[in-house]
Design a protein that fits this description.
Distance between the termini: 26 Å
Shape: elongated
Number of strands: 3
Number of domains: 1
Largest sheet: 3 strands, antiparallel
Strand order of the largest sheet: 2-1-3
Structural class: alpha+beta
Helix content: 25-40%
Strand content: 25-35%
Number of helices: 2
C-alpha cells in the first residue's frame, strides 16, 4: 500500500526530494557527518523537508552545517492515461 500512497502523492504534484545534510558532531565540532534524507515533497518550498529540518534543530544535538537538495518529478500529466474497462456492471 505504500506504493499506492507514493503514486497518489506524485499525481498531486509531489516529487522525490533527496537532501544531503552535513552536520557537526556535538563532541567534535570540527568534524562533519553526512546524513541522507529522502521523501516526497512539494517544490519549490519543500515543506516536508523544512519540517524535518525544524525537528532536527529542535531535537538533535548536531548543528546543521549545510543542506544540498535534489528533486526529481517522477511522473507528469503526460505519463497518465485514462483507462476504461468495458463489460463491467
Amino acid at each position: 500500500m505504500a506504493h499506492d500512497r507514493a503514486l497518489l502523492k506524485q499525481v498531486r504534484g509531489y516529487r522525490l526530494a533527496t537532501a544531503e545534510i552535513l552536520y557537526r558532531l556535538p563532541d567534535h565540532p570540527d568534524l562533519l557527518q553526512s546524513y541522507i534524507w529522502q521523501d516526497y515533497d512539494l517544490a519549490p518550498n519543500y515543506p516536508v523537508l523544512i519540517r524535518f529540518l525544524d525537528f532536527w534543530r529542535r531535537e538533535l544535538e548536531g548543528p546543521i552545517h549545510s543542506v544540498r537538495l535534489a528533486g526529481r518529478k517522477l511522473i507528469g500529466a503526460a505519463d497518465l492515461n485514462m483507462v476504461s474497462e468495458y463489460g463491467l456492471h
